[in-house]
């Protein structure tokens, strides 16, 4: 029974042996083997990060909404002004219009300063948490709010 084994047969035997080893290793690590496997779960509180990031932009969003509301008021007052012929009513409309314009400019300055502040905060946060989901989310929120503010400012300038 000492027949010479060809190189091809030897290769097949080695591969079969390796396959048997892998099957054995796999069986030993399978749950059916009833070995205790310690798995450590890592919980990431993404919800807290999201809530915190969104809360930071709440003041900016409120300011933008005030500006949008003032733009509606300004448009309504301008419409009334075109239809009003009495001087007293015209003067009252102009006073209201002036108040709405001043409020809009004040809100715009506030939103701009908050966006500037958030830009600096985000730069620090991103530097400390580079590549994290939270850093990307904060960057996206800042860009979204800045774009929204720019659109509202453009609408205000056209009025």
Automatic annotation (TrEMBL):
Record keyword Magnesium present: no
Source organism, top-level taxon: Eukaryota
Keyword set includes Transport: yes
InterPro entries noted in UniProt: SNARE (IPR010989)
Key words, A-Z: Protein transport, Transport
Gene Ontology CC entries for this record: membrane
UniProt record, GO biological process: protein transport; vesicle-mediated transport
Protein name (database record): Syntaxin N-terminal domain-containing protein
């Amino acid at each position: 029974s000492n027949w010479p084994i060809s190189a091809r047969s030897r290769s097949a035997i080695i591969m079969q042996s390796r396959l048997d080893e892998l099957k054995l290793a796999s069986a030993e690590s399978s749950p059916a083997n009833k070995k205790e496997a310690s798995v450590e779960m890592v919980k990431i509180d993404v919800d807290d990060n999201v809530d915190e990031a969104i809360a930071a932009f709440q003041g900016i969003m409120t300011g933008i909404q005030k500006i949008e509301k003032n733009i509606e008021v300004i448009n309504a007052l301008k419409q009334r002004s075109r239809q009003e012929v009495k001087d007293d009513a015209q003067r009252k409309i102009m006073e209201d219009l002036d108040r709405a314009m001043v409020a809009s400019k004040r809100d715009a300055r506030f939103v701009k300063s908050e966006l500037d502040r958030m830009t600096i905060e985000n730069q620090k946060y991103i530097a400390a948490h580079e590549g994290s989901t939270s850093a990307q989310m904060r960057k996206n929120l800042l860009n979204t709010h800045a774009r929204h503010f720019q659109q509202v400012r453009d609408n205000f300038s056209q009025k």
